Each structure stands twice: as C-alpha cells, then as structure tokens.
C-alpha cells in the first residue's frame, strides 16, 4: 500500500453522531463481563485500553465474542529483537485483531469437522454465512488520526508543552511521529508515546484500522482461505460520550469517520478483485470501561499498564490421531509448502470463560512483547505456544 497517497484522500465528510443502541450496549456489557472474568487487570492507579471483535447473526439477538485484547504499549525501534520473536505492537486493537485471525483460521477446521454456524465453504474458499456480521469494540478512541482532537481536549499541561515545542516538518509519503503536529488531519502517524521517548516504527491504530477497511482484517495468510476481505461492519467506541460536550463529540465523530475508513473513499480503486473500501459505521457507547483512563483518574498520577491480555474464543479438542493438526487451503492441502501451513495445537491453558462450550477460550499475557513468565532463553523454544 502506498501510505503516502492516503494522506491526501478524503478531506471532508458528512457525518452524524451515532449513539449505540440498547442491543449494542448489551453486547458491550457481555464483552466487559468476559474481561472481568479473565481477571487480568492493571495494577492499582493504572489504566489500559480494551478492544474486541464479535459476530452477530440476523437470526439471534446475542453476539459471539471471538477475540479480546488489552494494552497500550509498543516496542520502540531500538528494542526490536533481531530474531523477530517479540510482538512489536501490543495495543489492544492490534492484539484483538490477531486473536480474531486465529479464531477465523480455527473455525475453518471446526467447519470441516463438525460444521459452523458462522462460516461456510464456497467454491473451495470460505466466507461468512448470510446474515453474519463482524463488529469491533474499542474502549476509547484509537490512537493516531482519530484521536488527536479528542486527546487535545484532555491533555495535561506537561505533555502539551512538549508537543507545542515540537515543530516537525512532515514530508509527503512518510508517517508523522506520534502526536507531532497534532493539529493536522489525515496524517499517517506512528504509534504515539511521550515526545521524549524512543520512537516506534509501528503505525497508529487509526492507520491500521483504515487499512483493514480496505484490505479486510484477515491478513495475507487468511486471504488464502477466504474468498473476499473480512470487513468490520461497525466499530463501537467508548469514552467519547462521557465528555458531555456536544461540540467535542461531533468533532470526534467526524474524526473517527474520516480516520477509520472515510479517508480511503474515492481515492482507491473499487472494482479490482475482492478488496475495496468498506467504511465501518462508527457508534459511541455510554458504557464505561472499568479500567479506562477516565475511570481510573484523568489528570492524576495514573499510568498505563505494561501488561497486555490476548484472548480468543474456541479451543480445538486434541485430535485422537495426531498431536497437531495442519490447516491448509481446502483445494489441495497435501501439496502446499510448509510456509503455507499453520499448526493448530491443543491448548493446555484453555479454560471456560463463560458458561457453555462455545465460550471456552485461550488467553495469554504479553509484557514488553513477550509472553509473561517466559525466560529469555526459552522465548524461541515455545513449540507448543503458537497463539499469536
Ligand atoms: Zn493504538
């Protein structure tokens, strides 16, 4: 993708602030209940961001949560490992998307074994069944282009002075660093951090979500199995309505509409293959997340948590014939190269997170890009641990 061009696309949008429905809010309450049940919480006086993917069906009122993530951290360029064994980007949205991809790939195996109420096979590829839609929840406005004006409204004086003193020449075709020049819109940005912290190379969540609105969330490997992009129908965002400032809410609504997909409209080809812009609907929910920055204490000594939670639904039972199972495109599974396969192994740490077998899930905790509790010498030996 030529990210440089994206900064020039979509300069104005008509928008209407959408407040989530009671049905949406019941889904968000279920997400929060699952988070509470997982019990991976920040330390006292710390906050985090919660993100999740879930499915709805036109034939039932509830939802099926497929992945959940928390986190606000990202490795700076100077700490990226040479062997690629660490997760670079541990923001909640990114981990939730990784979990969603994992669930999608495992659901293909479940579909082959016992059928699926969510996906179906069509001409040797897979797709969602009719009436199934994918949605995303984020407990606050995603970092990057969507959140610049929202954060500016609550920024503390120390951070404001740092940002105000940073005047950066932003050249077309490059990404701006964090919140530098935060008065500019439609700018691709790297993950934010304090202005005096080492820079990262990861794009902001706003920019990554915008790319998903064009390419889908499934990634290059998932594209081998799904006959079209897996697109987000609706994104529900928290915290915004708590401001009570209608003017600010309208501004943030416009920012989210633009940043999370609107800026791609009209600027990219819409008739080439299975991938074309699908701007997600943006809704705001009044339901507060228990460990959000607003709830923990805005403007106090609260800090962001170092820990990230990754969870995805479903767990494949151990095969009676083999300790591992291979997933490959259904058309010719035996002829694919090793690089086109992924091993799905039984999970020793699967546990029931809600009543009923459909909500058994797998969870991990990530700190500084690595699984919690694993010593450095074992980080490249986790043969039974291919979660993310
Ligand atoms: Zn982010």
Topology:
Blueprint: H1 3-6, H2 22-38, E1 46-47, E2 50-57, E3 60-70, E4 72-74, E5 89-91, H3 92-114, E6 119-122, E7 125-128, E8 132-138, H4 148-152, H5 157-164, H6 205-215, H7 219-222, E9 232-237, H8 246-259, E10 281-284, H9 293-297, E11 303-304, E12 307-313, E13 325-327, E14 342-344, E15 350-352, E16 360-367, E17 370-371
Parallel strand pairs: 1-11, 8-9, 9-10
Antiparallel strand pairs: 2-3, 2-8, 3-12, 4-5, 6-7, 12-16, 13-14, 15-16, 16-17
The structure holds zinc ion (ZN).
Q: How much β-strand is present in the residues?
A: 15-25%
Number of self-contained structural domains: 1
Say which molecules are bound, naming each kind only once: zinc ion
| End-to-end Cα distance | 24 Å
Count of helical regions:
9
Listing every helix as H and every strand as E from the N terminus to the C terminus, the arrangement reads HHEEEEEHEEEHHHHEHEHEEEEEEE
Shape: globular
Portion of residues within helices? 10-25%
Largest sheet: 9 strands, mixed
What is the average of the pLDDT values? Answer: 79
Q: How would you characterize this protein structure?
A:
The chain has 388 residues and is of the alpha+beta class. The chain has one domain (3-306). The protein contains nine helices and 17 strands. The strands form five sheets. Strands 2, 3, 8, 9, 10, 12, 15, 16 and 17 form a nine-stranded mixed sheet that branches. Strands 1-11 form a two-stranded parallel sheet. The longest helix is centred in the first third of the chain and has 23 residues, at 92-114. The structure holds zinc ion.
């Amino acid at each position: 993708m030529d990210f440089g061009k994206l900064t020039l696309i979509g300069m104005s949008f008509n928008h209407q602030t959408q407040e989530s429905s009671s049905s949406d809010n019941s889904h968000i309450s279920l997400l929060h209940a699952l988070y509470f049940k997982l019990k991976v919480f920040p330390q006292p006086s710390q906050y985090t961001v919660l993100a999740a993917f879930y499915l709805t069906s036109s034939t039932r009122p509830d939802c099926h949560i497929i992945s959940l993530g928390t986190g606000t951290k990202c490795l700076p360029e100077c700490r990226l490992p040479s062997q690629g064994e660490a997760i670079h980007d541990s923001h909640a949205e990114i981990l939730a998307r990784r979990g969603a991809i994992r669930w999608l790939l495992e659901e293909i195996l479940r579909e082959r074994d016992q059928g699926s109420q969510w996906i179906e096979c069509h001409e040797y590829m897979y797709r969602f069944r009719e009436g199934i839609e994918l949605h995303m929840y984020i407990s606050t406005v995603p970092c990057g282009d969507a959140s610049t004006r929202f954060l500016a409204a609550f920024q503390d004086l120390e951070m404001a002075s740092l940002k105000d003193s940073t005047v950066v020449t932003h050249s077309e075709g490059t990404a701006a660093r964090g919140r530098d020049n935060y008065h500019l819109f439609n700018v691709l940005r790297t993950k934010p951090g304090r202005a005096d912290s080492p820079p990262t190379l990861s794009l902001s969540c706003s920019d990554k979500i915008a790319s998903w609105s064009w390419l889908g969330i499934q990634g290059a490997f998932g594209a081998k199995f799904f006959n079209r992009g897996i697109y987000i129908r609706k994104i529900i965002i928290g915290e915004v309505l708590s401001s009570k400032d209608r003017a600010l809410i309208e501004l943030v609504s416009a920012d989210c509409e633009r940043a999370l997909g609107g800026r791609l409209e009209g600027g990219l080809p819409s008739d080439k293959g299975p991938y074309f812009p699908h701007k997600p609907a943006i809704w705001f929910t009044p339901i507060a997340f228990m460990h959000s920055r607003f709830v923990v204490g805005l403007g106090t000594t609260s800090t962001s948590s170092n820990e990230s939670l990754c969870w995805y639904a479903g767990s494949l039972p151990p095969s009676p014939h083999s300790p591992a199972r291979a997933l490959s495109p259904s058309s010719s599974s035996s002829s694919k190269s090793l690089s086109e396969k992924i091993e799905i192994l039984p999970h020793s740490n699967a546990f029931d997170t809600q009543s009923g077998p459909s909500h058994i899930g797998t969870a991990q905790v990530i700190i500084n890009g690595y699984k919690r509790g694993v010593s450095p010498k074992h980080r490249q030996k986790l043969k039974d641990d291919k979660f993310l």
